[in-house]
């Protein structure tokens, strides 16, 4: 896979990236899979656009009084994924996650469509088992059994995870869209919190305790007024400010891994969606770095 050598399909790195995989505790990986997007394709361009926009930010975070210069992390570039072959793509993503986890490093994946999260979560479940907690920040429930007869769809990402992660370990925050059947399933099997993210996140922190937490953030959890560059925008979402505050709150949890998905640059000429994603990634790197010491 070439993670250690930075073997990917792009040369641009996220701002402040170190040049040494071995010395880095946090590993950033692009997973530009864009095969099952149900409305507007384009998420394959997300990782590189996020990197491009990151240079417009400071390495220093005023929120955490810390700089990327003090947290060694390594940007591996994008995985080389086989176009049109979802099973091969998910296998490659899972192998990358396995390698990072086995090397005792913190994985931070950039999608790509939401389906890229499934093999990463699978890799974490192999390590932690039923101790693992999943926090989903998203506009959509992603609990469809299938979409147009295909069960490996971004509309089914969380449903696929429930095939191996107990539903009671999954917390769905900010959800404001889905079928009646999806909401009925969530009420019975997962922990569903509609519309908001930060308030329920604060409420569940004590319940989660020190269990390992994997967070998957679909950028469409943010209102399209703030982040319109996504394939399935859904009005009525959280502000960019609430998104950042929610990320900062993750420092109160035992954060094990993170991904941000569904950034689709073709629909945002301003680049503000990728810029928000880059800022979120900066804060996650710093939060994870502080936890790792």
Short précis:
This protein has 293 residues and is an alpha/beta fold. Helix content is 32%, strand content 18%.
Plain-language structure description:
The structure is a single chain. This protein has helices at 46-54, 86-102, 117-128, 157-161, 180-189, 198-208, 240-249, 272-292; strands spanning 26-31, 60-61, 66-67, 73-78, 106-111, 133-137, 170-175, 191-194, 212-218, 254-261. With 293 residues, the chain is α/β, with parallel strands linked by helices. The protein has one domain: Arginase, Chain A. The strands form 2 sheets. It has an 8-stranded parallel beta sheet, with helices on both faces. Strands 2-3 form a two-stranded antiparallel sheet. Strand 6, helix 4 (157-161) and strand 7 (170-175) form a beta-alpha-beta unit. Helix 2 crosses helix 3. The model has no long low-confidence stretch (mean pLDDT 94).
